[in-house]
Amino acid sequence: MPRKHSKTAFSSADPTTTITLPAEEIPTPKTFTDGLPLPKLFVFDLDYTLWPFWVDTHPTPPLKKSTDGGLTVKDAHGGRHGFYNEVAGVLTAIKSRGFQLGAASRTCTPDLARQMLTYLSIPWEGTAQPAVELFDYLEMYPGSKTTHFQRIQKRSGVPYEEMLFFDDESRNRNVEELGVTMQLVRDGVTRAEVDKGVESWRKRNGRT
């Protein structure tokens, strides 16, 4: 099934490459400032959730750092790969408020996914922090995501009911059997999707 790409492109030479905007350009999710409860742990899928590609299919290794401050990563053919537009704003809003952050991916190339997270940066208040440094938990390997969450729960000690998960594939709703709340996203994670996810989490757990 074809995937849509974000409208903001890195250059006219590569119109399908998206980049994240600086964190301060993305408004904080409304649910983060309304005084109601929030999950303790936010978990994100990678492919078509944080970035618009399959990391085990589209980039051709070896990967190289770009000269744009980490907004994109170059692959062996010169293709450039970046985050969706609002990723920096979403991730920094979570971390700056003291919440924990995790990634749960079925990728067949976990080393490549980690390298992508290491080379891509999060622009925030004039700095460019490697994205990988924002994550408290990285679970990246094939298989049911219930396994990913069982490992995250064991390492974090956070109850499943305090976790909110963002993913683009409906089959991964099986994590809700554990008590996790999942928000299905389309065309990448955004501030609006985070608000929808938080509202679903509150409703499911009676935290409104």
From TrEMBL:
A single GO molecular function term of this UniProt record: acid phosphatase activity
Transmembrane stretches, start-end: none
Q: Which SUPFAM superfamilies match?
A: HAD-like
Source taxonomy lineage? Eukaryota, Fungi, Dikarya, Ascomycota, Pezizomycotina
Q: Which CDD domains match?
A: HAD_MDP-1_like
Top-level taxon in the UniProt lineage? Eukaryota
Q: Which Pfam families match?
A: Acid_PPase
- InterPro entries named among the record's database cross-references: HAD-like_sf, HAD_sf, HAD_SF_ppase_IIIC, MDP-1_euk, MDP_1_eu_arc
> Which protein is depicted?
Magnesium dependent phosphatase 1
Specify the species. Answer: Neohortaea acidophila
